[in-house]
Amino acid sequence: MDFLSKMAEWGLTPTPKQLEQFHRYYFFLIEKNQVMNLTAITEESEVYTKHFLDSLSIFKAGVLSEQTLLDVGSGAGFPSIPLKIMFPGLRVTIVDALQKRITFLSELLSLLEISDVELVHGRIEEFERKNHFDIVSARAIAKLPMLCEFCLPFVKKGGLFISMKSIHYEEELRQSHQALSKLRGRLKDTISISLEAELTNILLVFEKTENSSPIYPRSFALMKKKPL
Question: pTM for the complete prediction?
Fold first, then answer.
């Protein structure tokens, strides 16, 4: 199933401008990937499915309008930039530890004529806006217990942490019970996303029940040494 067909199935109707932005995004990604390690997926239809559609699937966790969205470990801009293209009212912040990725994202946003995304160079453990965002998103950048500590401290009470995982998520979720308890999160929903015939991903949607303690997230070294 192609990009537009899947979008229609999901009830999304991109404008000509939005389709042009995705088109520019793809070719800029491939151009820069020749000198930067941004993605192992380069074939056009696969980028549209495994990056763009996968990113957009987050909208299935709830209505997206003008929420604040923090993207942790965005890499080449996934999932936040495709979401920003389709839902331009989102107020997006991206934190990345590598300056070259921040530079790539800055150039990409200029190319896409998007001016209201905040790019922050630094480690997420050092980011100061705790208990602040409506939504915090992360793709499969770490195992779920560590990912919870990376992300949940920045979700405000009543907000959502959305973790994008493969269908083999159950053991990671089981290992995360203590982290969720300490960080004040609870599993709200598990959403299965069929991207194509033999590719299904999972959205784990966690709700923030109370503000996290200011001691979290701890340093990365301490997270590895003493995981929650």
Answer: 0.94
Identify the CATH homologous superfamily for domain 3-225.
Answer: Vaccinia Virus protein VP39 (3.40.50.150)
- For residue 34, count other CB atoms closer than 10 A to its CB: 8
| Phi, psi for residue 133 in degrees, rounded to 5 | -100, 145
Structure tokens at 154: 């920045």
30-39's contacts with Cβ under 8 Å and 24+ in sequence apart are 32/104, 32/107, 36/100, 36/101, 36/104, 38/75, 38/76, 38/101, 38/104, 39/75, 39/76
- Angstrom CA distances, 69 to 6, 160, 210, stand at 24, 10, 18
Chain segment 174-223, per-residue pLDDT in tens: 999 999 999 999 999 999 999 987 889 999 999 999 999 999 999 999 99
